[in-house]
Amino acid sequence: MEFLKKQWNHPSNDDLEKAKHLSDEWRMHPLVADILLSRGFKTQKDIQSFLEPSLNNLIDPFQFRHMNLAVELLQDAIVNNRRIIILGDYDVDGITATALVLDFLKACGAGKVDYFIPNRLKHGYGLTDASTDILLERNADLVLTVDNGITAAKEIRRLNDAGIKTIVTDHHLAETDLLPSGIVVNPNHPECKYSFKKISGCGVALKLVMALRKSLRKLDWWTSVQPEPNLRNSLDLAALGTVADVVPLLDENRIITYHGLKVMNDKPRLAIQVLKKLKKVETITSRTLAFQFGPLMNAAGRLKDADIAVRFLLSNDRQESEEIARILDATNAARREKESEMIQIAHKLIDEQKNNTALILVSPDFHEGVNGIVATRLVESFYKPVLVLSENEGKIKGSGRSIPELNLKEVLSDCSDLLERFGGHSAAAGCSLIPENLKAFKNRFIALCDERLPDLLIPKLQLDGTLDYLELNEQFVEQLNRLQPFGEGNPEPLFSVNTPDSPFSSLKQKHVKWNLKGNVEIIGWNCSEPFTNSLPSQLAVNLGFNEFRGKRSIQLTIQDIQI
Fold first, then answer.
1. CATH code of the domain covering residue 120
2. 88 and 25 share a domain?
3. 241-273 core/surface letters (b: 16 or more CB in 10 A; e: else)
């Protein structure tokens, strides 16, 4: 692991009195209190909502624009046994949303419900002409999109003209001229007043089934033969989709993830049991979802068909589940291998444009399903906006990742006349174009980045405090863990420590490790090279517990160094 030189920003600690008051009131370590304050949790109500996320604080789903219309249409389809097809996305958010809605509709007694997840290479993302053709062939009465559809105005018209009713549920942003007509449930629709805009696609799907369940209750739909589903059991899927989609783990997303993790650890469905065993996981955290379970689910949509992941999540057959898990694990291993190959190719291409403010890398050897991951790795290495584009069969298509200083979707929007399709968020987006437009697109994209980016780009690392090894104890680490789940918007606390004077151990010539007094260890994964010639003066570390063979130690994991 290479360490890109960063600017370390230390906390201001400008409200010591308030931190002390909070520390006394909640009986917590002053550093933990200071972290809460620095992250904007200042009132008793805010702190309690954060530390004790309650399902009662979920927003009324009928706040969504068109939610009542969506529920009425779905209710009619269920009561009259109409053919419903769920159109999902091939990433984890879309896969979990598909599984969640499919499972609920079957529990409602919907006898003609099915799903379709487009193949990334054959059909493209979401509701395209190719996927619309398939929906028309399947003679759907109602098409329900999850985690996609907000840019599919033309395709929705095709379905409606054919007599097929549609409901779009999504959370992505869209240009006004691309918005579909009809029923659209999306917090980011310009006319939607739903108060939390950062909910995931799977979160929107969860809100849809919450609203539908309530509406069916009023119809006296639920009986002893067909009991009302406990949606708490669906929170595991919603949590997995939320974490994997890298939306901020705050407000509703925090509530969903917090309780979803509880379900996974206390009463896991078969798929989660199988994944725990496969990955040798004792306790599932948001990190488990982000770096172990999520990539496995994603691998299906990246290299194969994502429908296998939906089958896996809903399977009640252990033999089938274990077999699919092995397939997903092998697919993910193949993805990692392809990622490594692509990064090598990318580094050769970068040599030609290393002085540019942004990197646009195009190759026929790039795999479309892995482009986004490679772009992420390159942003981490070079701290520049990156587009990784595959060139195949006369089409150029790929994904980009950006840095906080540049809104990638806005830049793509300003190049829209040169693109066939584009979409996404400020930090992550995708696009497609014809080869004839590539040169003009590159020139304009780079020019826009030149205009909007500062001359000197230095990545920043926000620290949460400074630690003394002698003051570390298990109680402090346990209190830090109360801030979980960690992720986007609520990062794992990061502390600076002085590099120990004692010698470190080298593990497998790749890792470094110190064993300190007081049952404390420091580990640096895949970073032995920077320590070979001289020791850094300071380390930036996360804290946690390492439990091995019944012994628990405090573990500091190195995330960055300062020479």
1. 3.90.1640.30
2. no
3. bbbbbbbbbbbbbbbbbbbbbebbbeeebbbbe
Give the number of residues written for the chain.
Answer: 563
User: What b/e readout covers 123-146, taking b as 16+ CB neighbours within 10 angstroms?
Assistant: bbbbbbeebbebbeeeebbbbbbb
32 and 163 fall within a common domain: no
Q: Does residue 440 sit in the same domain as residue 488? A: no
Cα 492 to Cα 481: distance, rounded to the nearest angstrom: 9
Segments in 113-197 forming alpha helices (H): 129-137, 153-161
Global pTM value: 0.92
**Can you give the CATH number for the domain in which 364 is found?**
3.10.310.30
Determine, yes or no, domain membership for 499.
yes
User: Do 473 and 502 fall into the same domain?
Assistant: yes
With contact defined as beta carbons under 8 Å apart, do 164 and 143 qualify?
A: yes
> DSSP letter string over 431-490?
EEE-GGGHHHHHHHHHHHHHHHS-SS---EEE--EE--GGG--HHHHHHHHTTPSPBTTB
Nearest CA to 206 among 265, 134, 263, 126? Answer: 263
* SS3 at position 395: strand
Does 343 map to a domain? no
Residues 180 and 114 in one domain: yes
| Average pLDDT along the chain, 563 residues, taken 10 residues at a time | 84 76 84 90 90 96 98 96 96 97 96 94 89 95 96 94 97 84 95 96 98 96 94 97 95 98 97 96 95 95 92 97 96 96 95 91 95 95 96 91 95 95 86 95 96 90 90 91 95 94 84 88 86 86 86 92 87
Domain range for 537 is 7-48+463-562
429 in the same domain as 294: no
| Rounded Cα distance, 125 and 134, in Å | 14
φ and ψ at residue 168, rounded to 5 degrees: -100, 120
189 within domain boundaries: yes
CB 168 within 8 A of CB 150: yes
